Amino acid sequence: MGLPPMQALRRDAVNAVTEASHLSTVAQDLEQDRQQPLQIQPLSGRIGAVVHGARLSGELAAEQFTQIHAALLRHRVLFFRGQHHLTDASHQAFGRLFGEIESHPTVPAPDGTAFLELNSQHGGRADSWHTDVTFKAAFPKVCVLRAVTLPGHGGDTVWANTVAAYEGLPEPLRQLAEQLWAVHGNDYDYAENFRQNAASQTETAGRASYRKVFTRKTIESEQPLVHVHPETGEKALLLGHFAKRIKGLRANESTALLQLFNERIIRLENTVRWQWAQGDVAIWDNRATQHYAINDYGDAHRVVRRVTVTGTVATSVDGRHSVDITVPEPLAA
Ligand SMILES: O=C(O)CCC(=O)C(=O)O
Ligand SMILES: [Fe+2]
Asked: Where in the numbering of this chain does the TauD/TfdA-like domain appear (predicted)?
């Protein structure tokens, strides 16, 4: 093999320099992007915003994280398009910027992760209004959901603003709500909540096995119907499908009031609906929202993964805290 001709060498050298300067421009652009203020575009009158210009990761620039955090408290749920670079690891690392992350108390996480995975083929369809994990006295503060597999169409998710719902109550209902406490449990009445959906046999079987895992041990809490948001000081209604009954009332009275307040929360004016695309991430403030995953895609496949950030016990308007009332399991003989 002879020596390469001088001209080819020179071309290689020029290419290398061009390549290097291209790389450094890319690096500079990335660095600049990291420092750019994000654009926040509200989506509806009372809840939800799309955030443009962020590349989510555990290494997000502090200024951008501060901006996201402030936007989350203000808009309750934030949406990010095009986060195709996220891996299980970087998704979790991003979630950790909000605090400690936790796996679900009863549903096992996919190997080596702390995710709650909702897989439509295994009964993972959250098609009932809820705030996440309120059967735990200290329920999650923030959740970060990433689309993994999406149906061709359908499978949107809707969020509702529970602060706006509280603020929209007439004074007598506010006063009533502020005095009430509800028992929340992971063994809530599934049939009641899901009766509206005509499911295929595959879906029905998936749901049954998911429910079995979900309720493998009963976890219960008592939560105030109105809680004070620990970061903003706002009052919010705290209900959703895990709320089984209102303390101290007869069953029919409890059912009527749960329905009355839940309907207030999910009024369309309090909601935003998100149509998922591959690469999307949604972050919600679980202390100020409920959500509902629309189950309109039949047996098509839909998988999402959720990072759950640990929260604190709720505080009622008169300064009392939510309580864990889980009955301890008998010790194995
Ligand atoms: O499937 C969804 O879009 C939302 C699922 C859900 O309820 C959750 O991740 O907490
Ligand atoms: Fe949820």
From this structure: 40-308
- Checking if the pLDDT of 235 tops 60, the result is yes
Active site residue 11: no
Q: What is the 3-state secondary structure (H, E, C) of 169-237?
A: CCHHHHHHHHHCEEEEECCCCHHHHHCCCCCCHHHHHHHHHHHHHHCCCCCEEEEECEEECCCCCCEEE
DSSP readout, 34-71?
Answer: HHSPPEEEE-SSSS-EEEES---STT--HHHHHHHHHH
Top mutation candidate among 117, 150, 304, 305 for ligand 1, by most atoms within 8 Å of CB = 304
Question: What pLDDT was estimated at residue 194?
Answer: 58
Rounded Cα distance between 122 and 255, Å, is 30
pLDDT tier at 25, thresholds 50, 70, 90: low
The minimum-distance atom of ligand 1 relative to the CA of 124 is 1
Q: Which atom, in ligand 1's list, is nearest to the CA of 125?
A: 1
pTM listed for this prediction: 0.89
Identify the CATH assignment for 38-324 out of 3.40.640.10, 1.10.3720.10, 3.60.130.10, 3.20.20.100.
3.60.130.10
